[in-house]
Amino acid sequence: MARRILVLDGHPDPDPRRFCHALADAYASGAVSAGHEVRRVDLSGLEFPDLIRRDDWEAASAPAAILGVQADIAWAQHLVIIHPLWLGFMPARLKALFEQTFRPGFAFGQRERTLGDGRLKGRTARIIVTMGMPAAIYRGFYFAHALTALRRNILSFVGIGPTRTTIVGNVEGISDVQCEQWLDRIAELGRRAI
Ligand SMILES: Cc1cc2nc3c(=O)[nH]c(=O)nc-3n(C[C@H](O)[C@H](O)[C@H](O)COP(=O)(O)O)c2cc1C
């Protein structure tokens, strides 16, 4: 069955050599080839301020670029979030996007902000994260904590789940063959819309 998929390319650097962009393209084209509907949000092309004041977070209006992202999330049945690991977490600019987007009135009620009150229920997600270290070290030694934080503290909190994860480790100096293998795997996930 065709699904509505939002691919969020969460790499802040517009340089086309960044592997995250190729992974986002692979997922999107795999999904389209299987008849799914796809929208894209490319963080590197979005203009919005960092959220500084609580009053701005609780204000009725959000910056124009953020209203567009909210509309795309509201439309989607499945979110695919792709980002590099920077100093152990998602890039600050991606966190800024979540802070701006998941605000009261859109992601949860104005008052009650407890787990289970998220307004974005009914959507599934996949996180794809690239990193320099081997995936086994990230899972075994660091307990994949940035993935857990995104999955539980952000997505789950607003009602999105279940969330699957893919770790693309050892990405620095990856060979062309390994690149192609990853792109094939990610395109297959897109075809299956998972
Ligand atoms: C600012 C910065 C911080 C980074 N921090 C980490 C890190 O904490 N752990 C890690 O394994 N790799 C780290 N890396 C390596 C990146 O994760 C890696 O270069 C990236 O995932 C490659 O994907 P890209 O081509 O899409 O940028 C860092 C790279 C940069 C530029």
Instruction: Identify the overall geometry.
Output: globular
Name the hetero compounds present: flavin mononucleotide
Q: What portion of the residues fall into strands of 2 or more residues?
A: 15-25%
What is the CATH homology-level superfamily?
Flavodoxin domain
Biggest sheet: strands, sense, closure? 5 strands, parallel
Domain Flavodoxin-like fold: 4-186
GO molecular function, one term: NAD(P)H dehydrogenase (quinone) activity
Organism: Brevundimonas subvibrioides
Pfam family, one: Flavodoxin_2
Helices and strands in order, then pairings?
Layout: E1 4-9, H1 19-33, E2 37-42, H2 54-58, H3 64-75, E3 78-84, H4 92-101, E4 124-130, H5 135-140, H6 145-156, E5 163-168, H7 176-192
The protein binds flavin mononucleotide.
